[in-house]
């Protein structure tokens, strides 16, 4: 399966004239980690995916291009769930519902998208005020 996230990340970074080192600094990661994400040998945690989408001012859907992040969460064993962040836990436990949003009428998808955007905007505001 093609790794859309890896391809999208590399494309966005180059499009924004950014080195792996520069992106790594923005994410508090080593440049080699960015390289591993771009070549598909490692996947970031959801928190980093959200930060990347914010850096490039795009949606998560545009960034991941398919369900690779969710697919990697499927492989997590039940006993590992306690080690996940709260966000990863919600995404893992609600994956079926998240996937089913795509089947809703466009009006309902827009309501959900606006609600998620509002939450992310609150996070941006919170981070800005810190």
Describe this structure in words.
With 130 residues, this protein is an all-alpha fold. It has two domains: 4-93, lambda repressor-like DNA-binding domains (434 Repressor (Amino-terminal Domain), Orthogonal Bundle), CATH 1.10.260; 95-130, no CATH class. Helices cover 68% and strands 0% of the residues. It contains nine helices and no strands. Helix 2 (20-27) packs across helix 3. It is globular and about 40 Å long. The N and C termini lie far apart (40 Å). Residues 67-74 have low confidence and may be disordered.
The overall pLDDT average reads: 76
Approximately how much helix is present in the residues? 55-70%
The biggest beta sheet is recorded as: none
CATH architecture type of the largest domain = Orthogonal Bundle
When the domains are counted, the total is 2
- The number of helical elements comes to 9
Q: What is the CATH topology classification name of the largest domain? A: 434 Repressor (Amino-terminal Domain)
Within CATH, the superfamily of the largest domain carries the name lambda repressor-like DNA-binding domains
Overall 3D form = globular
- Spell out the helices and strands N to C: HHHHHHHHH
Decide which structural class fits the backbone. mainly alpha
Low-pLDDT parts are 67-74
The separation of the N and C termini measures 40 Å
């Amino acid at each position: 399966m093609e790794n859309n996230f890896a391809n999208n990340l590399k494309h966005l970074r180059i499009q924004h004239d950014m080195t792996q080192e520069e992106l790594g600094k923005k994410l508090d990661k080593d440049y080699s980690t960015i390289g591993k994400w771009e070549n598909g040998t490692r996947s970031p945690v959801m928190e980093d995916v959200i930060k990347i989408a914010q850096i490039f001012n795009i949606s998560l859907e545009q960034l991941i291009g398919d369900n690779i992040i969710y697919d990697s969460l499927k492989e997590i064993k039940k006993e590992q769930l306690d080690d996940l962040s709260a966000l990863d836990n919600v995404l893992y436990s609600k994956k079926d519902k998240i996937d089913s949003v795509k089947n809703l009428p466009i009006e309902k998808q827009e309501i959900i998208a606006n609600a998620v955007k509002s939450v992310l905007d609150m996070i941006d505001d919170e981070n800005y005020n810190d």
